[in-house]
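Checklist before submission:
- one chain only
- standard amino acids only
- sequence pasted in full

Submission:
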Amino acid sequence: MGLGIWSMHFIGMLAFHLSMEVTYNTALVVISILPALFASGLAFSIISKPVVQKFEVIAGAVLIATGIVAMHYTGMAAMQTQAIVYYDAVLWILSVVVALVAALLAMFLLHYSRDRHGFSWSKIASAALITIGVSGMHYIGMLAARFEASTHHVTTAPSMNSSYLAYTVGIGMALILLIAVLSIRSDNKVKSLLDEYNRQFQSIIESATDGIVVTDAKGTIIQWNGGAQSLFGYNKKEIVYEDVRLIFPEARLDPSQYVEASITQKTLELIGSKKDGSQFPVELSIGSWETVKGNYYSLIIRDITDRRTNEEKISNLVYLDSLTSLPNRRLFNDRLRSTINQALESKMVLSVLYLDLDHFKMVNDTYGHQLGDQLLVKVADRIKSCIHKNDTLARIGSDEFVLLLPNTDDEKTQTTAQKILEMLSNPFQLNNEAVFITPSIGASLFPADSTDAETLVKNADLAMYRVKEEGKNNFQFFTSEMNELIARKSKIAMSIRKGLELNEFSVHYQPQFDLETEKIIGVEALVRWHHAKLGTISPAEFIPIAEESGMILRIGEFVLRTACQQTKDWQDAGVEPFRVAVNISARQFSQGNIAEVITLALDDAGLAPEFLELELTESIIQGATSAISKMQQLKAMGIHLSIDDFGTGYSSLSYLKLFPIDTLKIDQHFTRNILIDSKDAALVDTIIQMARNLGLNVIAEGVETLEQLTFLKARRCNQAQGYYFQKPLLPEKIEELYLKVKTR
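Returned file contents:
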């Protein structure tokens, strides 16, 4: 534009004829180019800014006008002739005004049309106004000039002839026009490519469901797609040229973070803020590129609310109990190990409580598992009300809970345990019915009992089992003696199988007497175990262990087969036939093939079924429907059935009329106390009378004195067994005893 203004001026000057010779000062001609170039460059620099204020448009117009005027009158000063130039002040001012007005109008038109692509009348009008301004200023300026001949000698600097100037300007303008045409054509191609790339870029980012935001190095938003609008709620006009911290208010987003994230290709997880003020988690991927105008950053933003929700659900499945939403075993162990590490550093104490609900299985069997689950939730709520927010309560089994009490000594531990016992002593309401449940609680202390997480839990568990063994519904600390007991239990459990293989188990028989005739009417088979290293082990010790390990099935079958074979051997030796009573555990009875096992034992021994009596515990009655079916099957085989330890279980008396039983066995606990406890005496009397009324046989266990025997005879009890008569004997002793009694 500057060269165009300059060329117009000098071509116009060459068209101006004077009556005298005119040459041009070469230096001034060249200098006259500079104002036009400088003014045009500054003006277009201003108008090309991304954001242009009105005062900047006016400043650009003033610069163009100043450049035109300065170029014109510098060019006039370059004329060398035998004349003095005078200017009419009014016309001179008018030339300046014309240049300024034309420049203002042209600049404003150019400003408002700069975002329009392709042909635009406003651009044509802007060019025309510049042309009018330059031409008008030139010819008014020439009109303002008055040349008067001078007789004084004019000193001339190095100059050029007007013809050379004409050729120079003409050739220069041709080159300028050629360069301009080529430049415009090249710019149009580049602009067309850029427009195509921009359209492709816009199409890509607008079709993306993720939010895409472009910022400069200062964090100013310069690009915003539809995905970002959907995420944050701002439209493009509202957010462009705003700070990116508007959508990430709590994040410290600065160029250093951008660079680090873009180089390492890491993603950032931030909290985004929507237009309505709500917040949500986002994942941010950052890319960067450099330009001559500085660094730019692309932010790809993804809403990870669903992912966070799913992660939380997965975490809950992994670390929380699905029923009570309490921590599960895995999370509890993590917290316990972490708390132990802190305690080791700070030298503080902590405790672990292991809690198991007593007789919870009965609740499930009575009310169903759904109500049982409701009870567990209520139990968890009550326990939580007894502990502090820093404590951890976890459910690690069906009815097993474990507590972690940080910074708690033995006194505080006992206080917490007592609170739990008292809280759970109140009844729970299930189906409008009051249900009572009690806990057994064991505790271990850190570091006194162990510094290892697994051992602390194990020791608390041992203490809880000791509470179970001693009557339940209580609390007890772990002691070192418990380790010795568990070690013995483990050794016994592992030795049972080997003991059976090495024939360490034997069967003794305790005679049963008719109280009227005082003759032997049968025997009860009782298992005994003499361990090679531990010596004689009481059934009271190894039977519960065998039931826990499942080895009671092997022991039970051994006793059954041995008793059947021995009874047959006695019969073959000429002993008058009598029944042998064999205890059947609940676990044996629950087997689906119990009838087959018994039939096979009888067949292998060759013993008739009527000489076998099976003693069943009251716990079998808990599965009443299946129990009746199996008992009827056994009864149909001709086997005698009795209920052992009657009165100690939780059965309903109504089952007595349903079960096909022959005998009730009064538990030895009642028998031993009939002379010292009136209630026990009343219970024994009631059982005997009830059995007689139901047509059942009654046998009393644990008879040890003549007074007890006299009491039972007076109540018309049918049979008895106990140390008063005989202790359990080896098979050969039974044969001797029978023959001895028979000869009396």
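Reviewer check: The chain has 25 helices and 26 strands.
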